[in-house]
Amino acid sequence: MIAVHAAPPKAKLTPEHPFRLNTGRIRDQWHTMTRSGRSARLNRHMGEPFLEIHPEDARALGLAPASLAELRGQGARAVLRVLVSERARRGEVFAPIHWSGETAPTGRIDAVVGPHVDPHSGQPEAKAAAVSVAPFAAKWFGFAVSTALPAPKADYWARARSEQGWRLELAGAETPEDWEAEARALFGLPEARLTRVSDSARGIERLAFHEDGRLVAALFVSPRPVAVSREHLASLLGGEGAQALSGRPGADMPDPGPVLCACLGVGVNTILSAIESGAALSVEAIGAALGAGTNCGSCRPEIAALLANARMREAAE
Length: 317
Ligand code: FES
Known about the structure:
By secondary structure, the chain is of the alpha+beta class.
């Protein structure tokens, strides 16, 4: 037993580094994902690194939801997806520890954490770094799916396993001149058949590549964070992918939305529809109706939060 005394963080907040950065685990990953990152199922919940920030701080900094933020500290930088959330306290931000140079080179949060260590345990001050936060000036955002491991060179990228291959988030500070050449290099597909929808006035590009009649890769580009159904696109890989460029399931196929329950593959939209229809109004009822939350249970707090939000909305109406 060692008697210890609480001490303030060694990293001091300054006008240059005014935010306290807390780092930690997320629900479905472990360490640097050397094992959990191989599971397509575990990657469905959170496919890229993020920065959780209070709505007031995000507004003051001009950080829109799903845009990208640049953190600086210790002479290093990280670029992370913005997650605006009341769970973050004002003046404090949270970022996960799991992404490495292999999965998201600008998502390595350890780079901005100071070298101070606890005198007894030797643990780094990973819960109390001092950082600056600013918008990352992206000219374009991209989302891609590919059956083969892609080779991204963009300023920002994060890749994750999917059932049929890979999914990839991208962004860049400069817009490439030739999107076809860019996509062919990204996917390593010099000869594959290309289908393309392009609206250069709005900065929108959609490219799908087929080999032997099968969809092997697709890239969606927009000047704003790309709004397509990621689960749907990832599920089209390896099939005909005839409607892939629409980015959404057809009207006869409801979009389940981002996966909330990774164990059972249940999306946020599916849970919200069950709540809104009145068919399931408790965590247990949602489990009984959809299966969500009935295996490892780690998504149950998020299901409870969806229910609480729905009740608040109803009370306000
Ligand atoms: S994530 Fe395991 S039960 Fe939902």
